TrEMBL record:
Lineage of origin: Archaea, Nitrososphaerota, Nitrososphaeria, Nitrosopumilales, Nitrosopumilaceae
UniProt cross-references to InterPro entries, sorted A to Z: CBS_dom, CBS_dom_sf, Diverse_CBS-Domain
Domain CBS: 7-62, 70-129, 136-195, 228-282
Stored Gene3D superfamilies: CBS-domain
Keyword terms of this UniProt record: CBS domain
Name the record gives this protein: CBS domain pair protein
Length: 282
């Protein structure tokens, strides 16, 4: 069994006295989904794209992003020694409901280990051992294609979920909306000149974000089928779990639909489900 130091990555950092505009710019510029927070050179916290996204969609203050301190969305880090087995790392992630661990050596931070790294390890080393159906989540959230955008966003926020399957009224799945899709859409709207005349388009994202959860604004006038992704990537119930892991990595996505023998979506398989498989390996 490999250990944490075999799959760790060099962390990207941001100073603790930064604001949310700084965080957003760094996440976009460096194409990273999480940043470690430093205070006087010491790592003392973490901020993720998802934490930032939920904040953007739920905060109802009138503050601009450069007025909001990073500390409002920072979370504590959980660390493991670099010699910790990867199955143990998987168990720690699941127990704490997190997607990454800080890796240390002699109490000094040497890297970060993410769910994606664990999926990469599992996919390389456990071919033919498990099938998708053993670890998929049989529940999946869904909405009809003519549902207003704000209802879908509120469902994601209230249920703390990352994706919603979209159906037509024949009950046929026709698309998917992910939290990352909404995050990117918020950024796109924030850069439009007619939203706000602002010299820094990153900061202007604060204004359209309110419209996402308003039935009288953008979120009410837009139907979910206008922004959904019509390409639902799916796998079969009996597929090898490592094959699906490689698909997630190749497509840079976090989850896929699971099809029954009749071609119906019967669940979702996410990176977290593969982490479960690793944690419970005998």
């Amino acid at each position: 069994m490999k250990v944490a130091k075999d799959y760790l990555n060099t962390p990207r950092t941001i100073k603790s006295d930064s604001n949310l505009a700084d965080v957003l710019k760094k996440i976009i510029d460096e194409k990273k989904s999480r940043l470690l927070i430093t205070d006087n050179g010491k790592i003392n916290g973490l901020v993720t794209e998802k934490d930032l996204g939920f904040f953007l969609l739920t905060d109802d203050s009138e503050r601009k992003l450069d007025e909001i301190p990073l500390s409002e969305i920072a979370v504590k880090i959980i660390s493991v020694d670099e010699k910790t087995r990867l199955d143990e790392c998987a168990g720690i992630m699941l127990k704490n409901g997190i997607g990454s661990l800080v890796v240390t050596s002699n109490n000094e931070v040497v890297g970060i280990l993410t769910k994606t790294d664990l999926v990469r390890y599992f996919s390389k080393t456990h071919s033919g051992e498990k099938i998708v159906g053993e670890y998929m989540s049989p529940y999946y959230a869904w909405k009809y294609s003519d549902t207003p955008l704000y209802e879908v966003v509120l469902k994601m926020i209230n249920e703390k979920i990352s994706r919603v399957i979209i159906r037509n009224h024949d009950e046929t799945p026709v698309g998917i909306v992910t939290f990352r899709d909404l995050f990117k859409l918020a950024l796109t709207l924030g850069e439009q000149d007619d939203v706000l005349d602002n010299t820094d388009p990153v900061i202007s994202v604060i204004f359209p974000r309110k419209g996402f959860i308003s039935n009288s604004g953008f979120g009410g006038s837009t139907k979910i089928d206008e922004i959904m992704n019509a390409d639902i990537i799916s796998v079969d119930y009996d597929d090898d779990l490592t094959k699906t892991g490689k698909l997630l990595l190749d497509k840079n996505i976090n989850g896929v639909g699971v099809l029954s023998g009749h071609g119906n979506i019967i669940g979702i398989l996410s990176k977290t489900d593969i982490v479960k498989a690793l944690a419970f390996l005998k």
